[in-house]
Amino acid sequence: MQIIVAKKAGFCFGVKRAIDMAFDLAKDTKEGVYTLGPLIHNPQVIEKLRVQGVTPIENINSANNIKALIIRTHGVAPNIYEETMKKGFKVIDATCPFVKKAQRYAQTLKEEGYQVLILGDKKHPEVQALLGFAGDNVIIVNGDEPIPPLSNRVGIIVQTTQPIETMKKVVCDVIDLAKEVKVYNTICDSTTLRLKETKELAEAVDLMVVVGGKNSSNTTQLTNLSKKICPKVYHIETADELKDEWFKDKKKVGITGGASTPQWLIDDVVEKLKEISFER
Amino acid sequence: MQIIVAKKAGFCFGVKRAIDMAFDLAKDTKEGVYTLGPLIHNPQVIEKLRVQGVTPIENINSANNIKALIIRTHGVAPNIYEETMKKGFKVIDATCPFVKKAQRYAQTLKEEGYQVLILGDKKHPEVQALLGFAGDNVIIVNGDEPIPPLSNRVGIIVQTTQPIETMKKVVCDVIDLAKEVKVYNTICDSTTLRLKETKELAEAVDLMVVVGGKNSSNTTQLTNLSKKICPKVYHIETADELKDEWFKDKKKVGITGGASTPQWLIDDVVEKLKEISFER
């Protein structure tokens, strides 16, 4: 059985940066280190951080011994940021720089008087944070549902992990409804490259294993994309979930992972697959 | 033989306005009335205007008895407008108000530091005039050829008679190349409605007759669109060009006309077709 691992699988720049910041902080500050929500969408990494004394909390009032608080990769709305700064404890902003850019663009569009349209998952923390920058005249679309009536001047920003095809579809739909459309392509290059590579890999193999948090938006997208192309696709968080029978008669297996999937989880999957292949 | 005439065939608002302005002027000013280039792209209308004393000239130095000069529907670049104003004769600006809007948007994009991308036919006078408003950092695309490398901030305006599908395609292509894209949909509603109606008509008939200037960009587009759908399509300027044999065995004939096609040319075609149908 041939095993092919996507080159772009695993941590993106923003996630790696945030993890490094958290581990560095945990080294210096022995207790009272928290993250506002899980730092990234990967339960195994969050568990490793917890062992090092970095604990996720739901809001800044959920703990009373906060010494240092880390803002997660997805960022927060300006009002939450301000509230946090007032508390007096150390604040480490691990918002992904590409997300930060999207936030600035949302604010620019608001200041320029555009109705801001955000393409993304309205429940996702990145989109929730963007909302805080986009003002009151804002609309969230997911690319599947029809777009409601719009103002004549619409500004578009996109959750950094959306597929570019969905963005293009939404822009075309908006062109039918508004006379002036300003688009910031805030999809990060890592997303586009990862989706492109996953597509190519899914086309070339009999079975795809997508490794990453079940709560990870971009990992779920890799799964959904693979399912459109490859006859068998499994989304797992760890190698323990792999089952021998999945690979019966399979000749080529592709492995990819989300932006929040650490290399060691991918390596574990590769090792387990080598064993399965060897035991046949 | 059933004859169906498109409801939107014939003069658009901007053309009608320009023709009215020219005839009004010819009534008051008995000689020395000129248009800078043909007022609209319809040779039969230009001939009628010529009979009334309104003559097209290539440039403001082509005649030495100019009393009044009409700027045609497609507009002119600001430098030509200024040069004209300095000459001291009466200037009537018959630029279509929708074209005027596109010119203002081109200037706005230039002032905001965008690389301006114009979707249109680079030889068309409307596009030539838009160029004058768009500054030096400008690019013209026709929607067929690949788009060359672009700046990171691109502003898009569109020749008012382009199909919206071409515009959407170009916007999507630009999204692949630039991070910030500001789009003014400067296609006039009349164009979109006319193309939509022509498409529906072409689907419903055995043969399409498209009436209008051979030099008319939007009439040519109606012809090209019809050819993609309908088995037989003829682009004619006048009823004289119709040939009996075209209509042998035809049950349903559709007629449409461009934005610069006068009603009387369409009526002539309908009359001639009724005769052909009756004589069978």
The structural domain count of chain A equals: 3
Q: What is the straight-line distance between the termini of chain A?
A: 9 Å
Strand segment tally of chain A = 12
Largest sheet report of chain A: 4 strands, parallel
For the record, the CATH architecture of the largest domain in chain A stands as 3-Layer(aba) Sandwich
Global mean pLDDT of chain A: 95
Determine the fraction of residues in helical runs of chain A and give it as a percent range: 40-55%
Low-confidence segments of chain A:
none
Strand content of chain A: 15-25%
Q: Give the strand order, joined by hyphens, for the main sheet of chain A.
A: 1-12-10-11
The assembly state of the depicted protein chains is: homodimer
The number of helical segments of chain A is 9
Q: Assign the CATH topology of the largest domain in chain A.
A: Cobalt-precorrin-4 Transmethylase, domain 1
Q: What's the alpha carbon Rg of chain A, rounded to whole Å?
A: 20 Å
Characterize the structure shown.
- 2 copies of one chain form a homodimer.
- Chain A has 280 residues and is α/β, with parallel strands linked by helices.
- Chain A has 3 domains: 2-10 and 190-279, 4-hydroxy-3-methylbut-2-enyl diphosphate reductase, catalytic domain (Cobalt-precorrin-4 Transmethylase, domain 1, 3-Layer(aba) Sandwich); 13-95, Rossmann fold; 98-187, Cobalt-precorrin-4 Transmethylase, domain 1 (3-Layer(aba) Sandwich), CATH 3.40.1010.20.
- Chain A contains 9 helices and 12 strands.
- Chain A has helices at 13-28, 43-51, 78-86, 97-111, 125-133, 164-175, 189-204, 217-229, 263-279, and strands at 2-5, 33-36, 54-57, 68-71, 90-93, 115-119, 138-141, 153-158, 180-184, 207-211, 232-236, 252-257.
- In chain A, the strands form 3 sheets. Chain A has a 4-stranded parallel beta sheet with strand order 1-12-10-11, sandwiched between helices. The first copy, chain A, has a 4-stranded parallel beta sheet with strand order 3-2-4-5. Chain A has a 4-stranded parallel beta sheet with strand order 7-6-8-9, sandwiched between helices.
- In chain A, α2 links the parallel β2 (33-36) and β3 (54-57).
- Chain A is flat and about 65 Å long.
- The termini of chain A are close together.
- The relative contact order of chain A is 0.16.
- The mean pLDDT of chain A is 95.
- Chains A and B meet through α6 and β9 of A and α6 and β9 of B.
